[in-house]
Amino acid sequence: MRLLDNKKTFIIAEAGVNHNGNFNLAKKLIRLAKKSGADAVKFQIYSTDKLVSKNLSTATYQKKNSKITSQYNLLKKLELTQNQHIKLKDFAKKNGIIYLASAFDLTSLNFVEKLKLPIIKIPSGEVENIPYLKIISKLNKPVLLSTGLSKFSEIVNIVKILYSFGLKRKNLYILHCNSSYPSNFSDVNLNSINYLKSYFKTTVGYSDHSLGIEVPIAAVSMGAKIIEKHLTIDNKMKGPDHSASLEFQEFKKMVECIRNIEKSLGSKFKPISKAANKNLKVLRKYIFASKTINKGELFSENNLETLRGSKGVSALNWLKIINKRSKNKIIKGKRIKKEFIC
């Protein structure tokens, strides 16, 4: 898909469940995502009854940000209806931003398929869900595979499964990720980006849960072509993901920095830029007479020096000139010209 394959980094504002189950707050997140410069805004679609057992406790990071100890009760409180998601998709379209969603169960996946989204994402927790992977592989759409809970050998196996079910190689996009909220900098391991890219011969992105904006910006400089980062109205709000999310101004700054990094990456070649070329003649060194040189005298380190100048013989030719003779008398401070050399 062109969205994911052009030179521009595809930036996803992960709204997730940061709407706290509030439809109007979800709409506000869409507006902020668009205003920040993100390419897409993504939500999480699930049916709590199909996703989690009722006696499962919350994850460690969820306990830090919510007093609710039951994962079922927490997710039920954050769940939006399918009708609300249809309205959010329409709202995103009106605001000029792509609406995306991760599905976390088969019922929701079937619903996401009906939404006809341009890109499908496999969340980190669904990589062992074989019936789920089978459906996604047959949708003939770009698939973002999140690897936050997978070691390398498992990623290899998951990719084989996706291909065996019919996923086209051109439709696989791998997201390096660390599923801890927030992620410690020492756990991020950005070097995986280039390794994943070279091994799987596909586009690789980065889904970030670290604090601040440094890591996703660095990920782009290391070759990530897709960036996903959580967006929130206020990271002090109660809810599982707010504390590991960016507020609007910081998210906007991240987007601006990524766009600047894109411009600065250039190509693998090392040209002299047009701007630098203007300074070339006045900053490079040329050969000058450090004292008066008589006709027939040998050029040496005793009578030559290198200075900035605009014309003459480049200092790069120093060794070629040494021990050659002067055709004529050269006054001290005069630049050496080719015609002065025997």
Present the secondary structure layout:
Blueprint: H1 2-5, E1 10-16, H2 23-36, E2 40-45, H3 48-51, H4 60-65, H5 71-78, H6 82-94, E3 98-103, H7 106-115, E4 120-122, H8 130-137, E5 143-146, H9 152-164, E6 172-177, H10 185-188, H11 192-200, E7 204-208, H12 214-221, E8 226-230, H13 248-265, H14 274-283, E9 285-289, E10 304-308, H15 318-321
Parallel strand pairs: 1-2, 1-8, 2-3, 4-5, 5-6, 6-7, 7-8
Antiparallel strand pairs: 9-10
Helix pairs in contact: 2-6, 2-13, 12-13
Profile the largest sheet: 8 strands, parallel
- Give the C-alpha Rg: 30 Å
Q: Helicity level, as a percent range?
A: 25-40%
**What is the percentage of strand-forming residues?**
15-25%
Q: How many beta-strand segments? A: 10
Number of helices: 15
The largest beta-sheet arranges its strands as 3-2-1-8-7-6-5-4
Q: What is the chain-wise order of helices and strands?
A: HEHEHHHHEHEHEHEHHEHEHHEEH
Overall outline: elongated
Low-confidence runs of at least 5 consecutive residues: none
Question: In whole angstroms, how far apart are the ends?
Answer: 64 Å
Structural class: alpha/beta
**Overall pLDDT:** 92
